Amino acid sequence: METQHNFSYSVIRLAGLVALILCIPLVAMQFSNEVDWSAFDFLIMGLLLFVTGFGYLIMTRYVNNFTYKAAIAMAVGSTFMMIWANLAVGLIGSGPHAGNWMYLSVLVVGLIGTILSRFSATGMERTMYAMALTFITLMGIALLTGMQHYPGSSVNEILGVNTFFGGLYSIAGLLFRYVALSKK
């Protein structure tokens, strides 16, 4: 019963934090024309922030290992940043391009790997490496299909973005590996 109460309290605190974060662009809109969010923008960002935080709460609910929690935070935070960047400006080019849809495959790999691993440290390590490998594969696809020629895109940007996110998932994989090895 106490655990349920603590979890409910955590969800309420999460909702408050999301509301507080959304106040930042709301206040900025009052003082600058540079920030121009629609109600839809607030809705999408609110959902993205809440789902990200809720996912972290669910995945760490019964975990006491700090490194495991850090690995989950790295994985969930990297996924949040990937989605946010893709929605805001696109990971390839400077706008909506079909190439940006292929990054859904990273989410699919992560979801399937997480379900199959049942959150075990070894399984999550493999999932993170598979997600990193997915970024490398997508980088190759983007370059082989000429997506570097999209407006606002270049070879360096495609290499940089995919390497950055692949690196984040690799670090999360290394954290999970540390947890797995420390249990032996």
Helix percent band = over 70%
Distance between the termini: 32 Å
Question: Biggest β-sheet, characterized?
Answer: none
Number of helical stretches of at least 4 residues: 6
Number of strands: 0
Shape: flat
Rg (C-alpha, Å):
18 Å
State the secondary-structure class: mainly alpha
Low-confidence segments, given as residue ranges, are none
> What is the residue-averaged pLDDT?
92
Q: What is the total domain count? A: 2
Order of helices and strands: HHHHHH
In percent terms, what proportion of residues is strand?
A: under 5%
How would you describe this protein?
The chain is flat, with a radius of gyration of 18 Å. The chain is mostly helical and 184 residues long. The protein has helices spanning 2-31, 39-59, 66-88, 104-117, 121-144, 155-182.
Brief overview:
By secondary structure, the chain is mainly alpha-helical. Helix content is 76%, strand content 0%.
Keywords:
184 residues; 6 helices; 76% helix
Question: Mind sketching the topology for me?
Answer:
Elements: H1 2-31, H2 39-59, H3 66-88, H4 104-117, H5 121-144, H6 155-182
Helix pairs in contact: 1-2, 2-3, 3-6, 4-5, 5-6
